[in-house]
Amino acid sequence: MKNPGADGEQMPVSSIAESKPYPGSQATIGQFIGLADEYCVAAYSLLSQCNRTSPSSSAPARLCAIHAVEMYLNAFLIFHGMTPAAVRGLQHNLAERAAAAARKGLSLRSKTQAHLLRIHDQREYLVVRYGPEQVRGLSELNRMFATLKEVSTKVRSAIFVRAQSSS
């Protein structure tokens, strides 16, 4: 298969999969936690810009919070032996990530588990990215940030306590 080059000349198409590893497939647990922490900080920073009279103003904070939760759960799952490819296979399903993490020992409150299921069922990840007309029906911001705080705290504790005790 060929693609036109800059000068119109036909050039072979190289497979991206052959040339570069999939993003995150070679990341360390510390790198996953570090990136999750950055999204968490961003979410809290953006929270102050939310305006109750404009529901879509919360979308950036929600997106960062959801992504931070996803990254924390990814770190936990990979730490406990799931391959990066298997984690990617979960797509953006936080409910399935949480269920897999629970099977590997992560104990989240029932309210948090229910919220992660609601985020999935209501497709909040897609709504905050592409659906400003649907933002009004999303979960409460305080619930979103309570979920973020619990997942962050418990994942970090589980990973760093276990890593220290096995040293």
What does this 3D model show about the protein?
The protein has 167 residues and is mainly alpha-helical. It has one domain. 62% of the residues lie in helices and 4% in strands. The protein is built from eight helices and two strands, in the order ββαααααααα. It has a two-stranded antiparallel ribbon. Strand 1 and strand 2 (10-12) form a beta hairpin. Helix 2 packs antiparallel against helix 3, helix 3 (59-79) packs parallel to helix 5 (94-103) and helix 5 (94-103) runs antiparallel to helix 6. The longest helix has 25 residues, at 141-165. It starts with a strand and ends with a helix. The relative contact order is 0.14. The mean pLDDT is 89.
Brief overview:
It contains 8 helices and 2 strands, in the order E-E-H-H-H-H-H-H-H-H. The protein is mainly alpha-helical and 167 residues long. The protein has one domain.
Helical residues, percent: 55-70%
Strand order of the largest sheet: 1-2
SSE order:
EEHHHHHHHH
Rounded to the nearest angstrom, the distance between the terminal CA atoms is 51 Å
The percent range for strand residues is under 5%
Largest sheet: 2 strands, antiparallel
Mean of residue pLDDT?
89
| 3D shape | globular
| Low-confidence spans | none
Instruction: Name the structural class.
Output: mainly alpha
Number of DSSP-assigned strands: 2
Total helix count? 8
Count of domains: 1
- Rg result: 19 Å
